[in-house]
Amino acid sequence: ARKEAERRIEQNEKLFRALVENDYSMTSLMNEKMETIYRSPANEMITGWTEEERKQKGIYELIHPDFREYHKKKMQEVIANPGVPVKYELKALHKNGSHQWLEGVSVSKLNDPNVKGVITNLHEVTARVTAEKKLEQSEKKYRHLFENSPMPMFVVDRNNHAILDVNDAVVKHYGYSRSELLSLTTLDIIPEAERIKLLDSNFKIIDVNHNAGIWQHQKKDGTLIDVEITLSNVLFEDGIAYLVLANDVTAQLQAEQNILKMNEELEQKVKERTSELESFTYSVSHDLRAPLRSIDGFAQLLRDKYVCNLDDEAKQYMNIVINSSKKMAQLIDDLLMFSHIGKQSLQKTKLDLNEIVTSVCSELIKPNDKNKIELKIEQLPEAFGDLSTIKQVFINLISNAVKYSNKKEQQIIEIGSYLKENEIIFYIKDNGAGFNMKFYDKLFGVFQRLHTAKEFEGTGVGLSIVHRIITKHGGKVWAEGKENEGATFYFSLPNC
Question: Is the pTM for the entire model greater than 0.85?
Fold first, then answer.
C-alpha cells in the first residue's frame, strides 16, 4: 500500500511538474524574503536570464526603476492578505537590453504547509501594452485636436440625435455650458422649421467628409446662425456616431447677399446710364447733322465758285474743311448706328452666310483691286441671327481686313468657320498691319484706335459696333494679332 501511494505521488508530481515546466507563462515560488525557491523554465525563455544570472543580479535589478517601489508594495499587499490573488503589471529588463511588459498575479501561501511561499504567475504582454500605449497617445493627440479646434465639433448619436461630446469651440460659440450641451439633442439647437428636415433626412455617408449642406442653428440666447455641416462616421463607446463639424457661414452668406444686391443695383444703374447715354448720343449726333451739312455745303460752294480767286494755300484749307466735315459726318453716322443697335430688337432668322459674305466682298472690293487681293473663303454653315446686323458685322470686319492689309503687295484675306461645343466660330484673317497684343484691351472700345488716322482712316467705332451686335446675339468677340504680321478676328454665334 505504501509503495502504491509513493508511486501515485510520484506520478502526480511528474504530471504537475510537466504542466508547470511546459507552460508558456512564468511560474515561480518565493519565500517571504522574496528569495526564489523555484522558477519554471518559461522564465528563462521569456526574459533571457538564467537562474544563476538572476540570482547574481537580484530580483529588483531586473525590474525597471520606475516599477521597483510599485512591485515592493504589491508584494507587501500579497503577504498581508494570504490566499487573496493580487494582480499587477510591471516593466522588466530583458537580457538583450530591451524592456518588456509583464502582467500576472501573485498569491501568498505562506500558511499552507504544502507550499509555504508566494506563488507568482506572469505573462509577457509587451505587444499588447505597446499597442495600448500607442492607442492612448493617439487618443490624446486627437482629443487635443478635437478640443482645441477653432471650428465647433459635436459627436452625435446617429439613432436618437443625442449630443455625446462637444469641443470648447461649441461652448464658446453657442453660449451653453458643456453639461447643458450634453443633456441636449441636435433637435434642441435647431429652429422648429428645420427639425422636420432633420428628422426626414437619411444621411448616408459615403465620403470621409460628407457635406450635408447649410442648416440653421440656434444659440442659447436665441440668435439664429447659418452653419455648413460636414459629417463623418466615428466609432464611439456604444457604437457608431456622427462627428459633426459646424462651420458658421452666417457672415459669409450675408456678404454674398449684399454683393448680389449691389450687383443687381449696379446692373440696373448701368442699364439706366447706358440708356441715357445712348439717348444723349443719338440726340446730339442727330442735331449735329444739320450744321455739319451747312459747313460742308458752303465750303464746297466757296471752293467751286471762287476757285479762281484762291491761292493754293487757301484751296488746301478749303479741302481740309470739306474732308474734315466728311469724316465728322461718318463719325456721326457710326455713333448713330452704335446707339441704334443698342435699342434695336433683333429679328432672328436662318441666315445663308455664304450669300452674305459674297455680297459684302463684292461691295467692298473694287474690280481693279481683285488682282491684288487674294480671297480664301471656306464654305460657311447656316446660322441663326438678325440679317441686317450680322451683315454689318461682316462689313466692318472684312473692310478692316482690306484696309489694314492695303500696304502689302499681295493682300491675303481668309474667311472661315469651325464648330466648338454649342457654338459656331467665324474668323476673318488678314496679312496686314496687325497689332500689339498688349493693347488688346483697347481694341473693342469706342473711339479706341491702335493706329493713327494718318496711317489708316477710320472713326474707331467699327469694332465697338461688332462687339455690341455679337454680344446681343449671345456670342463673343476676340482677336489675335502681331505687328506687321496680320490679325485674325473671331466671333461666335450659338449653334441653334
Answer: no
